[in-house]
Amino acid sequence: MSEKIKQDHDIAVGNIANIIRQFAAQGQKFRIKHGSTNSTRPSAAKGRHFVDTSKLSRVLEVNEARKTCLVEPNVPMDQLVKATLPHGLVPPVVMEFPGITVGGGFSGTSAESSSFKHGVFDRTVEYVEMILANGDVLICSNDKNQDLFQGAAGAMGTLGVVTLLEIRLIPATKYVRLSYVPVKAVPEAVETLQKLVRDEATDYLDGIMFSPNQGAIIAGQMTDIKSDGEIIQTFNSPKDPWFYQNARSMILDKTSTTTQLVPLTDYLFRYDRGAFWTGTYAFSYFKTPFNRFTRRVFDDFFRTRVMYKAADASQLLHQYIAQDLALPFPRATEFIDYTARTFGIWPLWLCPLKPTPYVTLNPFPGSGSGVLEPLLNVGLWGEGPKSPKDFIAANRDIERKLVELGGMKALYAHTYYTEDEFWRVYDRKWYDALRQKYGAQSLPSAYDKVKVNVVDAEGRGGDGASFRDRVFRQWPIGGLYGVWKAWRSEDYRETRRSLKGK
Description:
20% strand
């Protein structure tokens, strides 16, 4: 890293630290403004008491000898991969949505198809630079300020402001060879994943259950070898199929494993178009046919950067269940049976996880549990009840069932627990001790960041609803407003630039 780059970074961090010191002197609580989000929680970035870190958005160094990179927190994943690939390296865990930032991956819970092998994204971070709530700047790692380093992972920025991360890298390859294993039932899918978790030759692993009796377990191996006559399948072009459609076609009427060669970056961001399959709900909402032609025409609006912007502005997220729920493998089938009976939501995403060996706010199997066994994350994303009261009740029932089966949820999404319920699941004594030790009381707590104000949420559907809420519930006003806001944001241009390599 050049002296100029380091100096520029240090100046930016110093300016942020000074602002935080001013808030601390005034006893003023503040939030962190990142400039982008891939959370399904509505943005809280309103008001004056914010620390803006959005300009911390550079890859400062890629070190080939050490196989690491130094990255500011607002670097999105597609730009990080773009910076490391010329060095023949790639992050071990790459979030499948290209707009998710490095800082978001560390401070939130980011489990991807390589997480069965490497753990969640924060487990690939070697150290972080953080500004405490009093303005002090610390380096945190497993060797220095270890408790803060481990505790800040998954704590959603409630212990300090992350300003720099060193990330471990692994050798990159040209392709990923995918094996699609057809399964005919949920127990078979769970059993197949559990076996493949122990396969050292597998680099990536996830699954899609399209229905109770049809699914695909997808295992990937990194490779530079292309066999003669082997066709390469891509997923980033408007003319390409969405990945979940491709996966279904690969196992349709099949009884044995089929393979496919995919360029590495196409694989890493394979779920960008359509945000897995949730983009289909927009076609339904606007009563638009879902076919090759319409997907190609409206492709700009079905990249995740744009979809998140539109969904947040439209207020339609209040009508859709969006939860990632991690459970011990032996309880996963029971939980999926419950969601099938109660909600009938399909497809489901299945992603095995290597558990974190210490207490954090990320899903983990619990302290004192002995040998750490893999977990299975279930992505439950679909339409919920239309009534706000019923919608809240449905989400609370999901949380109740999850706790009953020994699971934990990823906190990127809404949380409907009461405060007492929340802290019965997550370790309050440990968390409060960290907050006290590092003076983080002027930052929102984890519960403050993720909780749903149930009274306000229920009011949206009744006499207490604001005029804006009542208007936005009228089809298609909310949806059209979301599309307009997404178009005005020009986030689609960022996607185009990324795809063109500019």
